[in-house]
Amino acid sequence: MLIITLWKVIDSTIFPIVTVSQIPRVHGISADFTRILFGPQAEQIHEPWRRLFNGPRFAFQEGLSAQERTVLSYERLRVINEAVADPVGLASDIESLVAMHEWAGVVDAGMATIASIHWNLHIGSLLDHDCDGRDLYPYARMESVGTFLCTELDHGNDAASLETTATFDPGTSGFVLDTPTPGACKWMPNTSGTGGAKNALVAARLVVDDTDHGVFLFLTPLTDNRGRHYPGVEVRPLPQTASAPVDHCATYFHGVRLPFEAMLQGEHGRLARDGTFSSTLGNPRKRFLRSVRRVHAGKLCMSAYSLGVTRHALAVAMQHSHRRLTSGMTTGRKVPLIEHRSHHAPLLSAVATIYAATLLHRDVVQQWTSGAEAEREETERTAAVAKAWITWQARAVMTECRERCGAQGLLLSNGIAYQLAANEGTVTAEGDNRVIWVKAAGEMLMGGFTPTPPSVVPAAGRALDDPGYLQELLADIERIWHGRARGRLRSGRRGDPLARWNGTVTPALQLVEAHVHRLAAEALLRGVSTASDFQARAVLGQLHRLFALRQVKAHSGDLLAAGRITSDHIHQLPDAEEALIESLAPYALPLTEGFAALEGVMGDHPMLSAPAPAAEMVPA
């Protein structure tokens, strides 16, 4: 079959315009996409997890009940523990820990959940506090699974107001752990007898001589190695959730006695055996935030989980779209689904989003591991904002993938529907997304953010295929919403803080959304610059423009009113987006091959395991 390749020059860069049927000729650039997405240390950080989870011990098992899946998840947790050279040290290796989440959720969402709790929240919190004299070796042998009990039935997003108490007993220098009201029960931790021996870190108010010193963590044994709860620990299994099958429970403590060593101490709060309390932080809320600091790292983990399962879903949907035949609009002609614009346009938009989201996440992890302590507050806010956006985008993209696979996408064994449902847990875990953004919005309006000044270059004559101009427009959107929110805040009703904030919060949330879009686009643009292959660089440049243009189009009215774009730009937007989709279509499969999806897992998906039928193609 004769293929004619046309070439178009845009901004001194040559972009190939080819047909979808040329895909085999461009597969070689997938390796460059993988290198850009996973970074120079992919072999050390990601490849060990890929090899582990690609094995038969993590294969999907059909027909299990929720309880059977939970039991299997705990068994697989031990498989991970056996495979890691230093299981305790994994909690301190943030890059490797986060990478584990990217691959674990693909094969077992429940296992990924309990692994995150065990390593990040439990062992990580132990390591982040004074741990001299504390024997962590039992965790290395997985003699006990760690869990984390913070939120309560009546206290979720206002966790600093927790009611559970740990009262100091001067007679023993120990503590008495109590659940004072029904609403103070610990809500949804994995505290059942499933999985064997479990230890919990329980967030409770330290009370000494009737003085409340704020919330600290207390190491509390829950079950023995036969899964039997210790005296004073009451656990009630909760109804099954729509997310990952995990042994969620409501947990109560009735006069549980703990030794002095149970309290996790540090500079934020120390207690002497005689009951003398000292702290470098005078504010109880700050003490609480320091005690549960690992929740911030958990946001990186939740983002990683969502990215991993979403990349896998996109890879599945893209392969399916190249295998499944449908009408070619003429009698007797069959073409792959991917040939249709109605099918490949939403998938390519999703690919652009997930490339940007993945590279944004890489940036945040790097800031986390290498940033100075003075920048920690800003880094934590960026991690939180990114977590909310990424998990929301994961929901939207996986929903699109599920629909593009039709009824096949509903089968749990095809690797999309199960992970899509489990992703709902990430939207709420380690901080509810909307509350995270409300907090970030308040910080950005009160001095935590300075908008980029507008460009002095007139909009007339600027081109929508100029990546620099597109980034300026994303900054303009950010500045517009910042100004709008600040204006609402200044003119709000005096003497009624809630009414004043209610009048501000809508544009403030738009500010946060604009902010994260700009950061994601910047991350993708940096990825473009690191591509070593000319063709890969061109394709990634098109992805960046597609991602940015969709945001510009959504805010084109505000940009036009502010003089940042012209009426000509408004008319050009639909055709510019359509042209990008058309030119990216031949690279749809190589772009998702760049996700380096688990080949063994993909091969077990029923809709991908059968030989693909041959299309009845008309010569080009």
Structure characterization notes:
With 620 residues, the chain is an alpha+beta fold. Helix content is 51%, strand content 13%. It is built from 22 helices and 15 strands. Strands 3, 4, 5, 7, 8 and 11 form a six-stranded mixed sheet that branches. The longest helix is centred in the middle third of the chain and has 30 residues, at 294-323. It is globular and about 85 Å long. The termini are close together.
How would you characterize the largest beta sheet?
6 strands, mixed
Mean pLDDT: 92
Radius of gyration: 26 Å
- Categorize the overall geometry: globular
Total DSSP helices:
22
Proportion of residues in extended strands: 5-15%
Write down how many β-strands occur, each being a DSSP E stretch of 2 or more residues.
Answer: 15
Percent helix, as a range, is 40-55%
Low-confidence stretches: 1-26, 616-620
The CA-CA distance between the termini, in Å, is 7 Å
Structural class, from helix and strand content?
alpha+beta
Which features would summarize this protein structure in a list?
620 residues, globular, disordered C terminus, 3-stranded antiparallel beta sheet, alpha+beta, 6-stranded mixed beta sheet
Strand-helix topology:
Layout lengths: L5 E5 L2 E5 L12 H9 L3 H4 L1 H7 L12 H18 L10 H14 L1 H20 L8 H4 L4 E5 L15 E5 L4 E5 L7 E5 L7 E11 L2 E13 L9 E5 L10 E6 L2 E3 L11 E2 L5 E2 L5 H8 L2 H30 L1 E3 L6 E3 L4 H30 L5 H29 L12 H12 L4 H16 L18 H25 L5 H6 L2 H26 L3 H21 L1 H6 L5 H18 L3 H6 L5 H6 L1 H4 L11
Parallel strand pairs: 3-7, 4-7
Antiparallel strand pairs: 1-2, 4-5, 5-11, 6-10, 7-8, 9-10, 12-13, 14-15
